[in-house]
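Worked example 4.2. Below are the chains of a multi-component assembly; read each line carefully before continuing.
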Amino acid sequence: MELQQFKYDNKIVKYFVIATVAFGLIGMLVGILMATQLFLPEANLGLQFTTFGRIRPLHTNAVIFAFVGNAMFAGVYYSMQRLLKTRMFSDRLSWIHFWGWQLIILAAVITLPLGMSTSKEYAELEWPIDIAITVIWVVFGINMIGTILKRRERHMYVAIWFYIATFVTVAVLHVVNSFEIPVTMFKSYSWYAGVQDALVQWWYGHNAVAFFLTTPFLGIMYYYLPKAANRPVYSYKLSIIHFWSLIFIYIWAGPHHLLYTSLPNWAQSLGTVFSIMLIAPSWGGMLNGLLTLRGAWDRVREDPVLKFMVVAVTAYGMATLEGPLLSIKNVNAIAHFTDWIVAHVHVGGLGWNGFLIFGMLYWMIPRMWGTKLYSTKLANVHFWIGTLGIIVYALPLYTAGVVQSLMWKNFNAEGFLEYPNFLETVTQIVPMYMMRAVGGVLYLTGAIMMAYNLVKTAKQGSFKAEEAAEAPALEKKKIVGGHWHAVLERKPVIFTALTLVAIVIGGVVEMVPTFLIKSNIPTIESVQPYTPLELHGRDLYIKEGCNNCHTQMVRPFRSETERYGEYSKAGEFVYDHPFLWGSKRTGPDLHRVGAKYNNVWHFNHMLDPKSTSPGSIMPPYPWLFTQSIDLDETAGKIKALRTVGVPYAEGYEEIANEDLMRQAKEISDDLAANDIEISEQAEIVALIAYLQRLGTDIKVNSNDQNP
Amino acid sequence: MERIKSKIKNLSSKYMLLPFLFLTTPLAAQTESSTGISQTTAFYVVIGLLIIVSLLVILLAFNIVSLLKAVVQKEMSPEKKASMEKEPSWFAKTWAKWNDLKPLEEEQDIMLDHDYDGIKELDNHLPPWWKALFYLSIVYAVIYLMVFHVFKSAPLQEEEYEIEMALAQAAKSNMEQTIVVDFDESNVPFNDDAEALADGKKFFEAQCGMCHKADGGGLAGPNLTDDYWKHGGSMTDIYNVIKNGVPNTAMISWESKLNPLRLQNVASYVKSLRGTNPPGALPPDGELYVEESNQ
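Applying the procedure described above to all two chains together yields the following C-alpha cells:
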C-alpha cells in the first residue's frame, strides 16, 4: 500500500488557542467584577452596562462559548486531524468557522451589556445572533463530517464519537430552544410560554452543560490524556457502554432544574430518575480516564499536564455525582435557588473544563512550536494556585448556600419565620461572597501565569503551521464482521443517525405531552394578558436581567408561602413569553410582589435600594428614571405576542398606547400625590406597573392580605 | 418550665448548626435568637455530620493501622520484611478485585489492535462495582416511578404541602392554647414594660422599617412619630391596623405572623414613638389625633 503525504493544519488550531486564552482571561475578569458587586454594589462603576444583571449573561456566555467553546474547537481541530489521519475537510470552512465564531462573540460582548437579551440562561443572545450561531455551527458540522468521510483511518476512535454527539445535539438544542418571534432587530419573544418555555429552556440549559461542556471534553480527554500519559486507554468496552448510555440518558434529566415548580409532577420525576441513572455513565468516563493512568501515577507527581488532567477528571466525577444528588427532591428543596448550585457549576467549570483546557494547552503548545514548555515550575505553581482557587471559591459558596437555605426555612417555636426579612439572610452570607471573589482572583492569577508561560514557550520555539504526515489511503473494500460496534465505527453516517435518535427520544417524551395534554397546565380563568405598559415593564425586567437574582416561582413549601404568598400555579404563566422563573435567589422571590408595596416604595427602592432596605446588595437603577420607553414599539410587541397565541383582540395594537398612557398616568398621579414628579413615559413607571401586576391575577376579588 | 424548654431547644439547635458555625462567625451572634429548626432539616444536618465524622474515623483508623504496621515492621527481621513487601496490601487487593483489574504485566493479553495516532486500547472488563451501581440506579428509577406514579404511595408536591401546612396548623393551635390574652383590638392596653418595648422595637426595625423607616419617620408608609394619623392614633387603633391591615394598601395583616402578645409589643412601641421627631421625617398625613386623657 502506497503511503500518501499530507499536512495537518496547525494554524487554525493556533488561532483557536489564542482566542481561548484571551477570552478565558476576559470571561474570568468579568466573573470577578460580578463577584465583587455581590458585596460591593458600587463596583458596577455606576454604569448600566456593567451592572450585575447585564454582565452575568456576559460572564456565562464568555466562559462557556468563548473560552470553553474556542478551547473545544482547538482541541477538536488538533485531535481530529490526527485521529483520522487527514487534514480538515476544507480550510475555507475552518476559517469561516473561526472568524464567524469570533464575530458572534463580539456581537455578544456588544449586545449583552446593552441589555439585548432573551433572558433564557446560556441562550440570552437575540435572534439575529441565534441565526448566525446556527450557520456557523452547521459550517463546523460540515467541516467535521467532511473530515470524517475523507479519513484514512478505517474506524472512528471514541473521541470522534463524542465530537459527533456534540455537533448533532447542540444543533438540535439550539434550534429548538431559539424558536422566537422577532419584534425588532434585537428583541424577540420566545415561541413557548410559561411552563412549556421553562421545560424547553432547561432541556436546553441542562444539555448545553452535557453536550457543550461535557461530551466534547470527554472526547478531548480520550485524546490528550492517553497521549500525555503514554498509556493505552483502559477499556474499550467501557467507552462503548458509557458513551451510549451517557448521551441517551443525559437528555432526559433537564427537568431536575425545575423540581418543586409548576412543572407537572411526572416530568419532574423523570428528571430525578434519569439524573440518578446518569451517575454510572458519567463515572464511566471518569474511570476510563483515571484507570488509563494505571502505571503512570509516578509521572503524575511531576508532570503538570497530567496533574491538571487528574484534577479535571476528578472534578468531573465529583460534579457528576453531586448533580444527581441535587436532583433528589429532599436535597433539591434545600439547595435550589441558593449559592450551592453556583458552587456546583463552578466545580464543573473551573475544575473539569478549566483544568482540562489548561492541561491540553500545556501539552499541545510545546508540540506545535517544536519546543519544550518554557517553565514547568511556573506551570506547577499555576496548578497549585488554581486548585487553591477552586477550593476557596467553592467552599464558602457551599456554606453560604446551606446557611441561607436553613435561614429561609427556619421557623421559630411560635410557628413564625425566624428571619422574615429576606435581607437578614443576605447580610449573613456577604462574607462568603467576599471569600468567593478571592477564590476567583486566585484562579485568574493562575490563568495569567499560564498565558505568560505559553507566550514564552511560543517565543522560544518556531511555529509549524503545516505539519507533514503520511498514511496509506483507505482501500475501497467491503469488510464484514468484527465486533458489532466496530461495524458502526466505520459507518459514520449511520453512527450520526443513531446518535440523533438516541438524543431525540428523551426530549420528545417530555415535551410532547407537556405541549399537547391540557391537564398538564390547568387553566385559571382570572389570568389575563399583560397590559401594554406592563409589557414594556416586563421587557425592562428582562433587559436589566432582574431574573439573574430574583425568581418568580414560589415553591409549595410552608416556608415560601409564609414568606411570599400562595405558591405558583402552572396556569398563571400561560402568557409569559418567555418564562421568568429564574434559577437563583440572590434577592427575594418576586412572583407575589404585586400590590405588596405601594408605588412610592418601588420608586424609592429602584432609585436607591439602601434607602428602603438598609444593607441591601442590590444596585441602584438611576437610568430607569431618565430613560423613556419607546411607544412606537408597543404595536409590534402586541402583534408578535398575538402571533404566538396571546389573545389580544384584533386591532388592539392600534389603541394599545391609549391604555398604556392611561395606566402610566395613574401611576405617575399616585407618585405625584406623594410629591414625586416623574415623566409618564419614564422606564420606571412601566417597571412599577409590571411589578405591581406580578402574581396578582389569582388574588383578584379576594381580600386576602397575606403578602 | 416553658423557658427552660425553649432554652434547651435553643441550645440543641445551636449544636445542629455547629458544622457551619466555624465557617461563619457572624452566624454565631444570630443563632442566639433562633429557637429551633425544623425536624427534617435537623435530621439531614445530623446525618451529614455523622457521615463526616465516620469518614474522619475511617481515615484515622487507616492512619493508625499504617502506623502500627510501620512499628511492627521495624521489629521484623529483614527476610520477613521482604516477604511482607511482596504481598500487596489489603487495599490494593480489594481495589484490584472490585475493579476486576488485570495485572499490569498481563496487559499485552488484552491489548486490542487499535492504534489511533499512537493511542492503543485495552479490552478490560467493566469494573464490577460500576456495573452494580448502574443496575442499582436503574432499579431505583423503576421503584421511584412506581411509588410516586403507579401505586401513588408517596405524596407528590401539592399533597406534601397540604401535609406540611396541616402539621403547622396543629402545632400552632397547640401553641395558641398556651397564650391566653385578656384583650383584643377593642381594649388592648399600652404596655410600657421595657422588655416588651424592646421586643416591639426589634420587630419594627426589621419589618415595619421597610416602609415606615427604622426610626418610624416614614418612607413609603406614613410618618408614625407625629400626631397625625390616617386610621386613628389610639393604642387600639394602632393595634387594629397592625393586626388586620388596611385593605388595598401595602399595609398587610400581621395576624398570621405575630401572636397577640407580640402584636401588642409592636403596637406599644409604635405608640411610644410619638414625639421622637426623627430627622428627615415625612410631613404630617391624615387627621390630628388628640390623646384622650384616660388612655
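Take a moment to check your reading of the output against the notes. The beta strands of chain A are 3-9, 180-184, 187-190, 466-472. Residues 701-707 of chain A have pLDDT under 50 and may be disordered.
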